[in-house]
Amino acid sequence: MVRRIVVALGGNAILTDDPSAVAQEHALDLTAEQLIPLIKNNDVEMVVTHGNGPQVGNLLLQQLAADSPKNPAMPLDTDVAMTEGQIGFWMSNAFTKALNKNGMGQVPVAAVVTRVVVDKNDQAFENPSKPIGPFYTEAEVAELKAAHPDWQMVEDAGRGYRRVVPSPKPERIVEAEAIKPMIAAGVLTTVSGGGGTPVIEVEDGFAGVEAVIDKDFSAAKLAELVEADDLLILTAVDNVFVNFNKPDQKKLEKVTIAEAEAYIAEGQFAKGSMLPKVQAAIEFVKRTGNPATITSLENVEDFIANGTGTQIIPG
């Protein structure tokens, strides 16, 4: 029986310390190679999504630096779409290389720039929370605020300061019905990159809004809409932990929804890192009854063979 798995890649799968195109393409070559075991036995239909926080933040800076009446900076929603296309292009090339290397060159590959509908009244627009772009020192923040007084900056996990923008919840994916037959036809598809391009419904269709959708919540919605059997959220660690970095830290392996929600209530998961992943996994499991797993890219083969990682299940 063929399983359909939506794979949500973390930022470490794309961007290392070098933001150049060459370095990011190289990182994705390695990422694609690590994902091939999922589909090597022809029993999995894989759909891939990814983040774009660093890329969209860097593109915004480039846009602002070159802003002029003849070459105006693009708005955030357009920047999201631009980076979605950029990373989708890199990912398609990376998958083609990896498939050819593994004798699977017949598998078609595609990347779809994806519109994701959000509620124009979502409270996120009043409370920007999604970090984008590079880290700044406290001194650099003062200069940025002087140049861009409308920017909101927050300290991020002890690593410096980052700009934050609205992050509304995804309600539906416009292209979902177009994507499903592609998956069924065996196309290795990259969609909803960076959480997808946020749009609101208007009288004659859709209009972009300045926001960034969390890629994990978007992955959960994508997995629901394409009727995935599993949601696989890949991050920097093999398992989710409670009491993380404390003497009594505990690795979570199989966790019910009720247990995961109790841990959230205890404040076990960091807001900027593990919390949205656990929340997104819970949403998918609640809506579909299917499991969601959080693990690392490096652990993919063991996940396939032994089901390792932190799996959230109904209950």
From TrEMBL:
<protein>
    <recommendedName>
        <fullName>Carbamate kinase</fullName>
    </recommendedName>
</protein>
<keyword id="KW-0808">Transferase</keyword>
<dbReference type="InterPro" id="IPR003964">
    <property type="entry name" value="Carb_kinase"/>
</dbReference>
<dbReference type="InterPro" id="IPR036393">
    <property type="entry name" value="AceGlu_kinase-like_sf"/>
</dbReference>
<dbReference type="Pfam" id="PF00696">
    <property type="entry name" value="AA_kinase"/>
</dbReference>
<dbReference type="InterPro" id="IPR001048">
    <property type="entry name" value="Asp/Glu/Uridylate_kinase"/>
</dbReference>
<comment type="pathway">
    <text>Metabolic intermediate metabolism; carbamoyl phosphate degradation; CO(2) and NH(3) from carbamoyl phosphate: step 1/1.</text>
</comment>
<keyword id="KW-0056">Arginine metabolism</keyword>
<feature type="domain" description="Aspartate/glutamate/uridylate kinase">
    <location>
        <begin position="4"/>
        <end position="296"/>
    </location>
</feature>
<dbReference type="GO" id="GO:0019546">
    <property type="term" value="P:L-arginine deiminase pathway"/>
</dbReference>
<keyword id="KW-0418">Kinase</keyword>
<dbReference type="GO" id="GO:0008804">
    <property type="term" value="F:carbamate kinase activity"/>
</dbReference>
<dbReference type="GO" id="GO:0005829">
    <property type="term" value="C:cytosol"/>
</dbReference>
<comment type="similarity">
    <text>Belongs to the carbamate kinase family.</text>
</comment>
